[in-house]
Amino acid sequence: MTENTQVPFYSLTLEDLKQVLKNLGKETFRAQQIFKWVYERRITDPEQMSNLSKDFRSALPGMLSFELPPVLKHLKSIDGTQKFLFDMGSGNSVEAVLIPSEDRLTLCISSEIGCNMACQFCYTGKQKLKRRLTASEIVGQFMQAKDRLAEGQRITNIVFMGMGEPLDNCDEVFKAIEVFQCQWGLGLSRKKITVSTSGLVPEMYRVAKARVRLAVSLNGPNDEIRSLVMPINKRYPLKDLLAECLRYCEETKDKVTFEYVLLKDVTDQVEHARQLVKLTKNIPCKINIIPFNEHPGSGFHRPSDEQVELFHTELMRLGAHVLLRRTMGRDIFAACGQLTSQKPDRPETMDISNSKIGGNNVRSFSGGESRIR
Ligand code: SAH
Ligand code: SF4
Fold first, then answer.
1. Which of 190, 183, 121 has the alpha carbon at shortest distance from 338?
2. Which residues are catalytic, by number?
3. CA 137 distance to own-chain centroid
4. pLDDT (tens digit, 9 = 90+) per residue, 56-82?
5. Which end of the chain is more exposed for a tag (fewer CB within 10 A), N or C?
6. Distance from the CA of 115 to the center of ligand 2, in angstroms?
């Protein structure tokens, strides 16, 4: 078998691998064994897969490739957030962000290089779609981050809130989701995986079908404002979008998370908070308000802390279940909407590409220059 007939391992669901083995006349239960070696033990050298026969071990390198997207940069923020920049070939790169909080470690991953949705406030949206990522490249982001965790650390949650619109790349995204939750592999619960969409209504049923969590970027309290900041609203207006959200809730018995970016004077007025509550009152939901993260040339501004507080308070007063998202990783340009597929031309805090996260060799940031914009 020649090199170019290798199948990228990380693009395979368990069923896919069984099929590959079957086609090669091998026993299909070997698929579980290989998954365990690779995902649990992180052994990718077939010679070390001791429960496989010698013949099988020598055939494996020709069959499967275990390549991962190379890490170009690995940066650590003053607040513990980490950013990974991956080389996706042809001068393109994407980013993933690892966000620690009290009881979880969340990996925010990318689904596309660039994005065609052209949301006016989004840094990724400034670049047209260059290419959709393969399942292997999506799972690869996770594996690279996992391989750099300190002893005892575990990624507990995955959110598709990095670069790109996941529902514009459904086949690969849902294949990756199947890999993430496979009990013989990474074993993440479906409830720990969130797909965030700008509202591609016809594809939203796939989120319900996969029984993972749904987040919807609302970002406007009415059609007029939403269409202004998110052109997709002209194709799928709020009425259709919210009806689909309700269907998701009914099918999964889960809540939807609405993300709502606060843009100074555009979406951050108290009257907008009232409209937002009215709009979503029939849908079991949480509202996640995100103060806009500024980036050069966007034309939008971040509201003052006082205005954010006014908005937040009004939502709570009206009985909404609301979360105010803490902005993480701003100093390494890893906050929501600050991700770009271009090679970095911005200040970067610290490159720890060759260190183990939290390990002894991680340099402390304290005393370093903070570059928060
Ligand atoms: N394409 C998907 C997922 C990626 S965007 C989506 O739109 O949902 C992830 C989140 O970041 C979205 O809720 C989006 O509204 C938010 N976002 C984008 N740019 C931002 C910015 N500059 N500041 C704050 N949030 C931003
Ligand atoms: Fe694409 Fe999401 Fe950015 Fe909109 S907010 S341009 S859908 S990545």
1. 121
2. 95, 336
3. 12
4. 899 888 899 999 999 999 999 888 999
5. N
6. 6
